[in-house]
Structures are given as structure tokens and as C-alpha cells.
# Entry
Amino acid sequence: MAKAPKRVRITDEGEIARIISEVEIDHQPRIITRNDADIAVVMAPQDYQAMNGSVTGDIWASYDAAAALISLRGAQGILRGVDTARLKRDIRDARGQDSIGRPD
# Structure
């Protein structure tokens, strides 16, 4: 899951402030590049929220208990036939690895 963006305060001067003002006016995202590499995207908050859900607010606002219950019931028996003791052991062992991903 993507992390929520960090908030950064800026002054009303400089090139970044100009870019932000442009985004506020035309709601067209800007891709910031350095040495021909894309490093950041500046977009209006409402556009970001539309893409990724609400940045702030009540995380339970759209919660549907009935739909959650249906999903949970649908998952019933999903591990049938799986050696759960081995699965737990594999998960525990994977958490103890120093590297990300599969072992060598």
C-alpha cells in the first residue's frame, strides 16, 4: 500500500512556488525532472484524492459492513488443503531474512 504523501511548507517565491501556482490555476499535473529523470509529480489535491482515495478524513466513511461480511464468508475455506503449520513456519522464516524477496 502506498504511503500518504508528506506535507511540505514552501514560501511564495521560487520556481516550485510558480509551478504550484500553475497547477492551482489549470489543474494540470506537472512532472518535475532533474537530469532527464522524473523525480516528482505536482498535482491538485482533489485530483490526487480522485486517483488514490481521500488523503484525509474518516477512513470508515464508505465502510459497508454487509459487504465486508460477504467477503469474509467468501474467503471461508480458502486454506483448505494447505499445510498451515508449514505455512506459518515459512512466514516466520521469511520474516527473519535480512533480504527482501526470496532466499538465494
